């Protein structure tokens, strides 16, 4: 469709003549004879182009341009005048007009001019729609739940998002830290830049250093050419450092330098590289305790925790489980081509009763399994793993408060669930494979 044009002019004959010319070019044309009626039309209709006379009964087209751009930033404006002046032309362009032309002198140019303006507006509207889709997919609206615990976390994240402050997201594995990081990025002035995520536990120290900071050709065996690091890729955007507590101490020193000086050194380079990037970090560890114990640099901890947000575990927001389960069920059903599915009351009761040590990630995996196993359109309790079905996992059941025991038991359960598949277990746990092997050795689970 060529586009919609609004003509604002108090001279009926000229307005109708221009409307007829543009209609013959297949444009949809709307008409108004003053500023007020023109703005009312813009309030209820998406318009790609406004063509306005300068002199109107209740205002002028030059000032109207600024109002149009405020209401519909993607809409272009062409200002027409009977007596053009350089000063008016400059002001019109400054207010955001696409062009400023004199009536009668540019009859041969009006159609090509309109075509170019519409083309530009359509591009801007497409970008706007893409941004809205990204916001729906990654924005705060994506975070499901109305419990006090999650809403407090969302409120803090919204407040800090509009700043450039470093953010530290804390909480258990599977509580949705990357979802929060994405939402913070999308709500920030950096939303048009890249969002780059890296799991600090998934890579060895040397590989992680090269990934983060890049390297020069010949810096080490296999470095055949220069490589950009993720801090360069995220320039003008956001870098999300997940599982920051697993980062080696010497790399922590390099990260601290980036935060303090906004520059870093590529591996094998002799000159620093500047970067303009926001850092959002996440951890499921007690970084303050690690800093006090010497396992994590205290100076980096205090630099990262300028603004800290604790994400609540799922067991502390049980009222949100039904809504989460409904959304996850429809998502998983759509993946494998199943129609809309419902959750039986008994199925939902089992979900809300379970303790969810793996939080939302564990809930997602359980829902995925149930959707695959279901023969009909309703999810039943028998599609759940036995430990989720069993009432022994209810919140009233005593359990060990020792963090080491909880972690060990949880890893054992996940390994049993995957029949010993360590790669799949690491994925479900949300940790790197090397970290899982270290935990298996530490807890003697092999």
From TrEMBL:
All copies of domain Response regulatory, residue ranges: 4-118
Pfam family, one: AAA_lid_14
Keyword Transcription regulation found: yes
Organism domain of life: Bacteria
Keywords, comma-separated and alphabetical: ATP-binding, Nucleotide-binding, Phosphoprotein, Transcription, Transcription regulation
Keyword Phosphoprotein: yes
Gene3D superfamilies: 1.10.8.60, 3.40.50.2300, Homeodomain-like (1.10.10.60), P-loop containing nucleotide triphosphate hydrolases (3.40.50.300)
All residue ranges annotated as the Sigma-54 factor interaction domain in the record: 143-372
SUPFAM superfamilies the UniProt entry points to: CheY-like, Homeodomain-like, P-loop containing nucleoside triphosphate hydrolases
Residues with PTM 4-aspartylphosphate: 53
Name of the protein this chain belongs to: Sigma-54 dependent transcriptional regulator
Taxonomy of the source species: Bacteria, Pseudomonadati, Bacteroidota, Cytophagia, Cytophagales
């Amino acid at each position: 469709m060529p586009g919609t044009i609004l003509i604002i002019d108090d001279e009926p004959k000229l307005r109708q003549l221009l409307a007829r010319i543009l209609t013959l070019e297949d444009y949809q044309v709307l008409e108004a004879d003053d500023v007020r009626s023109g703005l009312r039309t813009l309030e209820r209709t998406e318009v790609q182009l406004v063509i306005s006379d300068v002199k109107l009964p209740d205002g002028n087209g030059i000032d109207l341009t600024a109002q149009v751009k405020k209401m519909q930033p993607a809409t272009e404006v062409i200002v027409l005048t009977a007596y053009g002046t350089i000063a008016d032309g400059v002001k019109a362009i400054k207010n955001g007009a696409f062009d400023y032309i004199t009536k009668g002198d540019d009859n041969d140019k009006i159609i090509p001019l309109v075509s170019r303006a519409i083309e530009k507006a359509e591009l801007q509207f497409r970008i706007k729609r893409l941004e809205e889709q990204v916001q729906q997919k990654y924005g705060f609206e994506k975070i499901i739940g109305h419990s006090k615990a999650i809403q407090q976390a969302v409120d803090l994240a919204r407040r800090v998002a509009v700043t450039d402050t470093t953010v530290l997201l804390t909480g258990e594995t599977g509580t949705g830290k990357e979802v929060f990081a994405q939402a913070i990025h999308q709500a920030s002035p950096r939303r048009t830049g890249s969002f780059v995520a890296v799991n600090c536990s998934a890579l060895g120290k040397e590989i992680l250093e090269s990934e983060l900071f890049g390297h020069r050709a010949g810096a080490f065996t296999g470095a055949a050419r220069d490589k950009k690091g993720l801090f360069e890729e995220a320039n003008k955007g956001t870098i999300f450092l997940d599982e920051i507590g697993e980062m080696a101490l010497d790399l922590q020193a390099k990260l601290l330098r980036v935060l303090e000086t906004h520059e870093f050194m590529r591996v094998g380079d002799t000159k620093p590289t500047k970067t303009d990037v926001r850092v959002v970090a996440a951890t499921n560890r007690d970084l303050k305790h690690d800093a006090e114990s010497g396992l994590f640099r205290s100076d980096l901890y205090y630099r990262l925790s300028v603004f800290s947000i604790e994400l609540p575990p799922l067991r502390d927001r049980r009222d949100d489980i039904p809504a989460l389960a409904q959304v996850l069920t429809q998502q998983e059903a759509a993946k494998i081509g199943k129609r809309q599915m419902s959750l039986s009351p008994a199925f939902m009761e089992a979900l809300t009763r379970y303790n969810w040590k793996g939080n939302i990630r564990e809930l997602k995996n359980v829902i995925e399994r149930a959707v695959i196993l279901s023969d009909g359109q309703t999810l039943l309790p028998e599609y759940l793993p036995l430990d989720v079905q069993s009432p022994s996992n209810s919140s009233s059941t005593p359990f060990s408060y020792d963090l080491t025991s909880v972690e060990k038991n949880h890893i054992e359960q996940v390994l049993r669930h995957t029949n010993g598949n360590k790669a799949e277990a690491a994925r479900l746990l949300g940790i790197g494979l090397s970290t899982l092997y270290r935990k298996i050795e530490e807890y003697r689970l092999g």
